[in-house]
Write a structure and sequence with these properties.
This protein has 118 residues and is of the alpha+beta class. Helix content is 44%, strand content 21%. It is globular.
């Protein structure tokens, strides 16, 4: 199977997700946009294969996912695990944060992102 980025069949879904960002996505995006971190370009709602990442930097092959409480549900944990395994096979590293961490510790989150980017 050929790896596809931003597949056309997911365009409408990606656009809808961008238009309906969560408050925590909006907050983090203020720090990721315009190459503010290490001069790297991040994209919102970027698809890799059939999965859509909240934020993705193609140059670094690095994704960021923000999780709400629904990610504690068993079926969502299984989906997230399958997704993480797929992305790892594509040599894409992903870091996950809880929405509450973005709200309560944004500075710490930004430091962790910087560290992961080397």
């Amino acid at each position: 199977m050929r790896l596809m980025y931003n597949q056309p069949n997911l365009k409408t879904k990606r656009k809808t997700l961008r238009q309906n960002q969560t408050d925590t996505e909006k907050l983090l995006w203020q720090y990721l946009r315009n190459k503010q971190i290490r001069g790297l370009k991040f994209f919102r709602q970027y698809s890799v294969g059939s999965y859509i990442l909240d934020f993705y930097c193609p140059v670094a092959r690095f994704g960021i996912e923000l999780d709400g409480g629904q990610h504690n549900e068993i079926k969502n944990k299984m989906y997230d695990k399958k997704r993480s395994e797929y992305l790892k096979q594509q040599k894409i590293s992903v870091i996950r944060f809880w929405n509450s961490d973005i709200i309560n510790n944004l500075e710490g989150i930004l430091e962790k992102i910087q560290e992961k980017l080397g």
